[in-house]
Design a protein that fits this description.
Layout: E1 2-5, H1 10-20, E2 26-29, H2 30-33, H3 47-62, E3 66-75, E4 92-95, E5 98-101, H4 108-118, E6 128-138, E7 144-155, E8 171-173, E9 176-177, H5 183-187, H6 191-206
Parallel strand pairs: 1-2, 1-3
Antiparallel strand pairs: 3-6, 4-5, 6-7, 7-8, 8-9
């Protein structure tokens, strides 16, 4: 059975395919199908809400079961930031208590630079953080599943490793950064791996 993934991030696709393939699920992207999904406004105030927005849109356009995730890094010292703004952390400015996206095209490098800057001088014991992944699966018949996974660690002082994406080179767990974990090893402990295992358990009940 084909499920469409509401992203063109091939690393996310690989992670999902590794874990969902034992259920007979083949995860594809719109690009692989030769179609284009419209951009959606991720204006939810939680990871769960944003995942649902993306999954509903993809399901409606393709009439296929759709999977979308919304994930990010929450740093305790920063009050849970960057949180739902993780992918555009370097874009966000606060104005009168409201976070505003200044649309400067944040990327992983800029986001990591900003995180290191904000944690400059912060001691090891206060650099705790956790990754969150919410996954929503929507079926054309209206059924919905939403699950969540977390992974707890801390933020390092410099980038380490070239695996993964996002904040992985800075996120330390079990003594090394996610940037040094290979795919299947990371799947066993990652926020997305934990969320996908929860999704698998739910899908097994209905497929």
């Amino acid at each position: 059975m084909d499920f469409i993934l509401a992203t063109n991030n091939m690393k996310k696709l690989a992670e999902m395919q590794r874990i969902l393939s034992p259920l007979g699920i083949n995860v594809v992207t719109a690009k692989m199908l030769g179609i284009q999904l419209p951009d959606v406004v991720e204006d939810g105030d939680t990871f769960d809400a944003n995942a649902k927005i993306k999954a509903l849109s993809a399901c409606k356009i393709t009439n296929m079961p759709a999977i979308a995730d919304d994930s990010g890094l929450c740093v305790d010292y920063l009050g849970g930031a960057p949180g739902i703004y993780s992918a555009r952390f370097a874009n966000i400015v606060e104005h009168n208590g409201v976070n505003i996206d200044n649309e400067k095209n944040a990327d992983d490098e800029k986001n990591n630079d900003l995180l290191l800057e904000k944690l400059s001088g912060v001691p090891d014991e206060k650099r705790t953080a956790y990754y969150v992944c919410a996954i929503c699966c929507v079926f054309p018949d209206g059924r919905e599943i939403t699950v969540r996974g977390e992974c707890h660690g801390k933020i390092g002082y410099e980038r380490d490793g070239n695996e993964g994406f996002g904040y992985d080179p800075l996120f330390i767990i079990n003594g090394k950064s996610f940037g040094k974990y290979e795919g299947e090893e990371k799947d066993k402990i990652s926020h997305r791996g934990n969320a996908l295992r929860a999704l698998t358990a739910e899908l097994e009940k209905i497929l």
